[in-house]
Amino acid sequence: MSASLNACCILALFVVVCYAADQTRQPGAIGSEVVDAVVNLIRESCLFADDKRFLVRLAYVQSHNGYDAKTFRDGYHGGIWQVDKNMFDETHSNAGRLTNEYNIIRNQFRIDWNRVTWSDLRKPLYSGISAALYTILHGGTEWRVEDQAHFYELHFVNKAGNNFTNEAGILDLGCHGKEKLDLAFIIDRSNSLSTDDFARAKNFVRNVVDSFDITPNKTRVAVVSYASHAKSEFYLNRYTNVVDLKNAISAIPFIGGSTATSEAIDLATTNIFTPSHGSRNNAVKVMVVITDGDANDEIDTRYISKLCQK
Hints:
Blueprint: H1 2-23, H2 32-44, H3 54-63, H4 85-93, H5 99-109, H6 124-137, H7 145-155, H8 162-176, E1 181-188, H9 195-209, E2 219-226, E3 230-234, H10 242-250, H11 261-272, E4 284-290, H12 298-308
Parallel strand pairs: 1-2, 1-4
Antiparallel strand pairs: 2-3
């Protein structure tokens, strides 16, 4: 009986592992488990054995592990790691500098990188490999998040790397979860998102809060939604367990309208992070803005974002 039970357990484990592996090559697959599976494959193959957690952080910053509504937008194929076409092209045009890496990819993954196209990057493994190759081409990164943010600023986006530092900080907080955290999500529900995009945004928030210990003494969560105007959905002191919190997130309706990102950030800054609404002096305060990036009040948004960083 015991031997039979053990055999069943082994079989079940095998099925789960195979399913995770299959997801790494499934176009459009998303989630932290998929990202972890891809990164583990890349590390264990010695393609990028010492990435210093950069690939995990990059996936979270670039697309929130694929949950960002714009990850698989029409005409863009960068995948979870959001590898732009010009970045991907560098991994081909510099093949001579990546001979060893090409051989590893061929031998370990049975992939001929010369034949890979940008559209293949919708598969998580291909997107992760491309991000790894591009990072290797540009010298790799250091351990410190600040150094990785600088690398990100230079080679992945043409803007300040503070977003990388902030987002990676959220991910790392979720890993050890010892800090008191006041976390506010600013969710776009304007016409710039489709109803499917909005559902994916809420799903992302639910997945993030699952990573934290939602209690009055650890992590508190608030949500501000916005379209033509901003609204406090609930404050930091409203929910004290993850089940009720996730139900409240699911219940937020899509309404449409213009995109008042500035007003939403202002509301969170002045109305959410206050003692009367549950904010604590000794807690780390983090604001996560979920949007398509096209604010109708762009100038004000940049101004308020600078205020939030002070």
